[in-house]
Amino acid sequence: MRRTVFPHKLLPWLLLAPQLAITLIFFYWPAAQAFRQSVLREDPFGLSSTFVGLANFRKVLNDPAYLNAAQVTVVFSLLVAFFAMTIALFLAVQVEKIVRGKGFYRTLMIWPYAVAPAIAGMLWLFMFNPSFGTLAWPLRQLGIAWNPLLDGEQAMALVVAAATWKQISYNFLFFVAGLQAIPKSLLEAAAIDGASRRHAFWTIVFPLLTPTTFFLLVVNTVYALFDTFGIIHAVTSGGPGRSTETLVYKVYNDGFVNLIMGDSAAQSVILMVIVIALTAFQFRFIEKRVHYG
Where is the ABC transmembrane type-1 domain (predicted)? Predict the structure, then answer.
């Protein structure tokens, strides 16, 4: 194996400098600022600040509204990750069976990922608006009292559907790539041995897809925790009655709406710790079941 040797010692650092600068400016610096603000009680206009230690964290963890946001986040994240990955895997398997026009269908499936989260939320809000939504009318004809603006469970179903639809395309792309990497000879051998398609999928295809599935599990978890802010803000704004207020949306509410800077910073630090711990747990325990063939 040949090794690449840089003749100039500064060249590697120059090549890494843009990425290091972006990481420092957009991650480490905001994280350090959040840590600093989390131990301070600040004036909303930044005119004065008082060091309070861990008082902000104690206040946040004893706040029923924050505990409710944590519960909503768990339910929302599990539903979005499960449905987004399951539907994407099903569609990827079905597209692989198509002989003609396979590329056309793949392109159609990828398009929704280009839609911004806020736009995706508005699309679903317009379709299911209780007053004029095109898909709300059939629900009323079925006798369903559909009004996600007043019903918390319906609001949760709507934001889960919007967030799932937005993420399916991303998952679909990786599942298709994973399916293409599986040797066809293995499936042909299973068919010769008399294995059904369902049996071949669960014993051959899905185990070989576990690296892709594990990667998407981590990505979808982070997506549900952070990137769905725009969808929730556009569709429900955390309502009704905080039924769709996730942890990241509560950070926004307390920090930018109510101007409680110390509590908002403490919540952002807690959320960051949760994400790091959850990702470490996934790599530590779930990755053991991943088969890298």
Answer: 74-282
Distance CA 115, CA 112 (A): 5
Q: How far is CA 184 from the centre of its chain?
A: 32
240 prior amide bond cis, ω within 30: yes
Whether cis (ω within 30° of 0) applies to the bond prior to 64 is no
**How does 38-53 read in b/e, with b if 16+ C-beta sit within 10 Å?**
bbbbbeeeeeeeeebe
- Which tokens sit at 176? 């298709």
CA distance 97 to 117: 31
| 3-state secondary structure (DSSP) of residue 144 | coil
Using CA atoms, how far residue 272 sits from 211, 231, 264, in Å, is: 25, 20, 12
CA atoms within 13 A on the CB side of 151: 12
- In the block, tokens 């998407």 appear at 216
Cα Rg, the chain, nearest whole Å: 23
Give me 261's structure tokens: 């800077």
Domains with residue ranges and CATH for the chain: 57-289 (1.10.3720.10)
pLDDT in tens, 209-233: 888 888 899 899 889 988 899 999 9
What residues contact 121, with CB distance under 8 A and at least 6 apart?
159, 162, 230, 231, 232, 233, 234, 235
Reported pTM = 0.86
